[in-house]
Amino acid sequence: MAQFNGKFKLDSSDNLGEFMKALGVSEEMQKVGASVIPEVTIETADGKHFKITTATSFTTVLVEFNLGEEFELTTADGRKTKNTYSLEGDVLKQLETPADGNGVSATYERSILADGNLNMTMTIGTIVAKRLYKKL
Predict the structure, then answer these.
(1) Would the N or C end of the chain have less CB density within 10 A of its end CB?
(2) 122 exposed, middle or buried (CB, 10 Å; 0-12, 13-18, 19+)?
(3) For residue 24, what is the DSSP state?
(4) At 32, which helix (H) or strand (E)?
(5) What residue ranges in the chain does DSSP mark as E strands?
(6) Could you read off the pLDDT tens digit of each residue along the chain, which spans 136 residues?
(7) Which of 85, 73, 79 has the alpha carbon at shortest distance from 110?
(8) pTM strictly above 0.85
C-alpha cells in the first residue's frame, strides 16, 4: 500500500498515559513516552513487506515485518512482545501480545487520512488512545 510510504511527526496525542499504564509501562517510561515527539517513517515497496522506523531523542526503533507473519519484538520500554500485522481495507492493524503470555494484549490501527496525515488508534480493552502524525 503505497499510501503508507512517508515520514510523519507527532502532532497530537490523546489518552496516552492511561494506555501506557494499562500496558504496564513503568512510571518513569510513561514520563519519557509523554515527553518525546516521535518521527515515524513507513516504507513498503510491495504492500506486504513493511519497515516502520520510530525515532525520538530517547531511542530509535526499527520494526520490519511481512503482513500475516508473527514476530517477536522488544519494545522501546523493554517489554518482550509477539506481533502480527494485517491490512484490512486501508487500515494497517497490529496485534501485540506479551511474549510470555502474561499481561495484556493491545491493538494498534494506522491509517492515512485524506490530508495525508497518519492516524493511529491504540486499544486495550475499553481504553483507547489516539495519536495524530502530520506528514513531513
Answers:
(1) C
(2) buried
(3) T
(4) helix 27-35
(5) 6-14, 39-44, 49-55, 60-66, 71-74, 80-88, 91-98, 106-112, 118-124, 127-135
(6) 568 999 999 999 999 999 999 999 889 888 888 889 999 999 999 999 999 999 998 889 999 999 999 999 998 888 999 999 999 999 999 999 999 999 899 999 999 999 999 999 999 999 999 999 999 9
(7) 85
(8) yes
The structural domains of the chain, with segments of one domain joined by +, span 2-135
Edge to edge, what strands does the sheet with 60-66 contain?
60-66, 49-55, 39-44, 6-14, 127-135, 118-124, 106-112, 91-98, 80-88, 71-74
Cell triple for 119: 492516524
Q: Which three cell numbers stand for residue 53?
A: 522506523
Q: Residue 62 CB: number of other CB atoms within 10 A? A: 10
